[in-house]
Amino acid sequence: MKKPLSKAIKRLYGLGDFGFGLMTQVETNLFVFFLTNVAKLSLPVVAIVGSVTSIVDAVLSPFYGAIISGTKPMKWGRNRSWMLIAPPLVVIPYILQFSSIGTEMTAATMICVGFIVSHIFWNIPWVANVSLIPVLANNPDEASFLSSRRATFTALAGIVFSFTGKPLAEFFAGVTGSLSLGYSILAGLMATVMVITYWTIFKITDGYEPTGKEAQQTAGGQRVTIGGMVKCLTQNPPLIMLLLSDFFRYMVTFVSMAAAAYYFTYVAQDTGRLFALYLLIGSLAQLVGAYIAAPVAKALSTRTASIVGLFGLAACAIVGKFFAMSVPMFFVFIIGMRIFLGILTSVMVALYADTSVYARWRTGENATPFVMGLMTVSLKAAVISRGTVIPFMLGLVGFVADTDPATATLALKNAVINMVLFIPGIFSLISGLILMLGYRLTREKVMEMQEEINAREAQASA
């Protein structure tokens, strides 16, 4: 029997995701701006940097969980050890990612190196952190609760960064007299916060994971072979369906949010006050969704909550398309979408925890970090794919970059509304159908499998 969750874990699990969120917000919101306006790289070089870093990051994404599962547990446990040793290795490369050194090609090369190396060292502890959910949780409801805490802290990080990110970069630039150095210091500061918050989670989870030789001697504590990891994927139909469903869920997020700037440029024709209000209200709505995700999942089950969330998001987006010429109505439907998105960000992570239980029950090998790490595959695939949707839609209506917003045609406005609402709604509908028809793991089945796993391990230990 696992230890019950401590008060510290109930209150603070997710703090690591707050620090991680603050750090990644620098890249999400400011990286392209840094390349063009601070490092002053030419547009072709910016395109090369973006392509190289995105492709390498996507190619490496399946290996982070495999590294954790495929190596012997270290002194502090299979997952917690990586949360201790890897985060500090992020700081220097992440600073390098936001630096401008030497000639244009030298700067671009150093930025690419900083990006790739920092991502390697931050993705491993991220996977280790999320892999603690099935380690800590005694049942699917606790897994949903912990996932909700992660999503809540992540949403909170977005809100905090919206007020502090760019102002801090400008403050440090003023102090040092260098705009580039201002961004470097901001990146280093946020990476340091990430280190501290991950170390906090490392501390409060002490005693919940077998450590050192104890971990290697426990049932399921040995390293997992490559063949074992392959079995955990190929003999895991729920996981395959979840990965496919999650790809479309990520497409909803990336396409809708990337297209929002076009809405406020060509439909609302207010890229200042209204766009800033959209960012704030959207983050707050997603925070509400993440916070209520645990009680919703407990009442409905994680699977049902995910399906309801996807169909609810689809309904808000598809119906909202027909009212989006009105800015107030646009905000109403966006709030609904972001609340459902906050719920989904939480509960769909818990589904991966359930598939890790299924994999362990089916194969007898504990490849939880590998299984949990696979969620980054859907994310990275969506990051690459999103780049085709918006240019395609704009191309259909003959969009020209220097179009005066005041002269925007009805066709352009409708195309933008489709990008922000209708197409993401269709993606969400597809995701919900895949999950409803293809993902058969119920709460009761997961609990039965966990009990059988516990019995096997107790027998093996005896």
Description:
- Helices cover 80% and strands 0% of the residues.
- The longest helix has 37 residues, at 140-176.
- The mean pLDDT is 87.
- The relative contact order is 0.14.
- The chain has 462 residues and is mainly alpha-helical.
- Give the % helix: over 70%
Number of helices: 19
**Shape category:** globular
Domain count: 2
- By CATH, the superfamily of the largest domain comes out as MFS general substrate transporter like domains
Low-confidence stretches: none
Query: Which range does the strand content fall in?
Result: under 5%
Keywords:
single chain; 462 residues; mainly alpha; Growth Hormone, Chain: A; 19 helices; globular
Q: What's the short version?
A:
The chain has 462 residues and is mainly alpha-helical.
Helices, strands, pairings?
Blueprint: H1 7-12, H2 15-38, H3 43-60, H4 63-70, H5 80-85, H6 91-97, H7 104-136, H8 140-176, H9 179-204, H10 212-217, H11 226-234, H12 237-266, H13 273-300, H14 302-320, H15 327-363, H16 368-373, H17 375-396, H18 410-438, H19 443-461
Helix pairs in contact: 2-8, 2-9, 3-7, 3-17, 4-7, 6-7, 6-9, 7-8, 7-15, 8-9, 8-13, 8-15, 11-15, 12-15, 12-17, 12-18, 13-14, 13-15, 14-15, 14-18, 15-19, 17-18
